[in-house]
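Hi R.,

As promised, here are both runs. First protein below:
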Amino acid sequence: MNSVVKQLGTPHQLGYVFADINEAVDTFSGIYQFEKTMRFDFTIEQHWVHGKHHPISLDIFIGVADGTEYELICPLSDGPHKWFLDQYGGGLQHIGYNVSDYDQYAQILTKAGMTVLMNADCDVFEPGASEPDHHLVAAYFEKPSMGNLLIEIAARQPLR
């Protein structure tokens, strides 16, 4: 796995799942001094779980501290985030990497024995915007030997 980590580089994001996002935001804001924050509902039709179409809706808070994104997620619909919450009660769910080429990094993770749990391919709108900010191709990868921890890769192409 070390060669995979070298190819992915430094994680950009730590993703947590909680039932009460307001409590999580208060807790994390007391621990970290966020330089930037954003909160939004992420509802997406172009979403698949184990290759099957599975729209999803999430309440997301992102706080950035010292170059790391802390993504706090509260599931608003059925799917992997809710399943994680139901099974583990919340906590750290994924480590995220921003990548330049989705296919290249998906192959790296697949060669390391990981499989896609869920993936998305969509335009992303910043809160209140009428035009999309960027196009996102992303996936959570899983491997039984890693327990409940997922690896996320996300390729974002600016549209403005």
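And here is the second one, sequence first, then its structure tokens:
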Amino acid sequence: MLLQLKNWQFKNWKVTRGRNEMIMRLSNILLVMPVVLAMAACSTTTIDGSTITDDAEVKRGQLQVKPYTIGVDDEVSVSVWGNPNLSMAMPVRPDGKISMPLIGDVQAGGLEPEQVAKNIKTKLSRFIKNPNVTVILTELRSHVYISRIRVTGAVESQISIPYRQGMTVLDAILAAGGTTEFAAPGRTKLYRTIDDKTKIISIDLDAILKDGELSSNKKLIPGDIISVPERFL
């Protein structure tokens, strides 16, 4: 009877010990997992000798698009609250100025809309008490090529398309109609300029199109150029 009791206590001790070890292992995994995920999110890939952090680079590339300044040929709408005769839409002249009743020429080129509205308000204050002025860009013509994605080389249609947030290499290739029969998609290159420095990023477009392997399906930023070379005959 005593021997059976000891055997039972020993078995119960082993079960308890095993359960405690299991709990400890699960706890360690749960503690380590956030660190692993954080490292994965910040992981870097070395391509052509340069270190690239995808998420950070995409964010930096998007943020480098500076606040929009009005340019020649842009169309602006000037609204003066309570004064419909002073509210109008007009293009920016080649000299960078717009013309308004009462105050004449106002500089618009090279300035942000808020700055132009402030300048108009200052000039109108000589004629109107506390004018409320709003300047809105209604048509962007001068900066049309800054935020574009270009696809060149062995694609069905070489294109220059407006950048859209979330756009990837595959999106751009599909917009170009896909690759031609003479393409070497496995040697595709992505040319990216950030801080006045151009990086060349290798894209395995063949794996993306044929195998659904999306590891090199990079997110794009304004100004990216994708080049699909022809294969050697």
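A quick note on the second one: The mean pLDDT is 80. Let me know what you think.

Best,
J.
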